[in-house]
Amino acid sequence: MFATTTTTNLEKLEPRLKRGDACGCPILAVAISSRCYDPR
Predict the structure, then answer these.
(1) How many structural domains are present in the chain?
(2) Which of 40, 37, 7 is nearest to 27 (CA)?
(3) What are phi and psi of 35, to 5 degrees?
(4) Measured between alpha carbons, how far is 4 from 22 in angstroms, rounded to an integer?
(5) How far apart are CA 19 and CA 34, in angstroms?
(6) Residue 2 confidence (pLDDT)
(7) What is the pLDDT of residue 32?
(8) Would you tell me how many other CB atoms lie within 10 Å of the CB of residue 17?
(9) What is the mean pLDDT of each successive set of 10 residues along the chain, which is 40 residues long?
């Protein structure tokens, strides 16, 4: 059985991807910066 982990920080995700934590599974990472926020 495989465990699933999540992260809400792109800086923490990048090392996980580089070391292969996904075990070959496809990954979709969406990062939203403060530039995407429009407080209107």
Answers:
(1) 1
(2) 7
(3) -70, -20
(4) 9
(5) 28
(6) 56
(7) 81
(8) 11
(9) 67 83 80 82
First-last CA distance in the chain: 46
Do the beta carbons of residue 3 and residue 22 sit within 8 Å?
Answer: no
What region does 19 belong to: left with phi over 0, alpha with psi -120 to 50, or beta?
Answer: alpha
Q: Which two tokens stand for residue 24?
A: 């070959």
Show the domain range for 7: 1-40
In contact, 34 and 24? CB cutoff 8 Å: no
pTM for this structure?
Answer: 0.49
pLDDT of res. 13: 82
Element (H, E) at 26: none
Q: Give the count of alpha carbons within 13 A of 32, CB side only.
A: 4
